[in-house]
Specification:
The protein is of the alpha/beta class and 250 residues long. The protein has a single domain, classed as Alpha-Beta Barrel (TIM Barrel). The protein starts with a strand and ends with a helix.
């Protein structure tokens, strides 16, 4: 299993981070993309990349922090020079919380998309209640390599993403009883463009809902999607792991 999105540098893992990673290995996790979107966590993030050969990194200015772009851009450029950085993200638009004004979010999103193309890196896209603007900007910028993190769009949105060459990532939401749209996407997404993630420590899947999420819980997401598609869990695990390695050029 390959967890394409986990925030392992998050402070909620400070007391037992090594144990969490050990549990992931025991459960069959063979790769993790550790996403750093809080630049106060960079030191922990760098140490994880050094210490664990199966943990790779992604770094980007989150839409929540777009207003602080002037002080974050230099840190971003320095981070992108580090070894084992395989993607730029998570980046995008969040119109639910609007911690930064929408116009500034769009400006910073476009800046980072251009940077990703310059660095030849895939992008990890965050889009919350902003799918129309997200897709429009991705199309305008000619993005062809990346993944829609924790995809929440409709079938029509998915088709647009697939036409651009993007991957669809499903997280713990797909296990929630009322998440009918996410389950529909799980059935319809082409297997060669599907990846899975935990978004740890957020969005724990249904069997452990309410707990701090961690990569070892990816098995619940695999189980649910495999059940929805009526294929063996091992087959889905192998396919999504291969897709992740292709997406991130590993």
């Amino acid at each position: 299993m390959f967890d394409t999105h986990a925030h392992l540098a998050d402070s909620r893992f400070d007391r037992d981070r090594d144990k969490v990673i050990e549990n992931a290995v025991k459960e069959g996790i063979s790769g993790i993309i550790c996403v750093c979107s809080d630049f106060d966590e960079l030191d922990v993030f760098y140490n994880l990349l050094k210490e664990y050969d199966f943990i790779y990194g992604a770094v980007g200015i989150h839409p929540h922090d777009a207003s602080f772009q002037d002080k974050l851009k230099e840190k971003l450029h320095q981070a992108l020079k580090k070894d084992k950085i395989v993607a730029l993200g998570e980046i995008g638009l969040d119109y639910h919380y609007e911690n930064s004004p929408r116009a500034i979010q769009r400006e910073v999103f476009k800046y980072q998309l251009a940077l990703a193309k310059q660095k030849n890196l895939p992008v990890i896209i965050h889009s919350r209640e902003a799918m129309e603007d997200t897709l429009s900007i991705l199309q305008d910028e000619g993005i062809q390599r990346g993944v829609m993190h924790c995809f929440s769009g409709k079938e029509e949105d998915m088709k647009i993403c697939l036409d651009m060459g993007l991957y669809i990532s499903l997280a713990g939401v797909v296990t929630f009883p009322k998440a009918l749209n996410s389950q529909k996407i799980a059935r319809l997404a082409p297997l060669d463009r599907l990846v899975v993630e935990t978004d740890s420590p957020y969005l724990a899947p249904q069997p452990v809902r309410g707990k701090r999420n961690e990569p070892s819980f990816l098995r619940y997401i695999i189980q649910k999607i495999a059940s929805l598609r009526e294929i063996p869990e091992k087959e889905l695990s192998d396919i999504t792991s291969q897709n992740a390695r292709k997406l991130f050029n590993l």
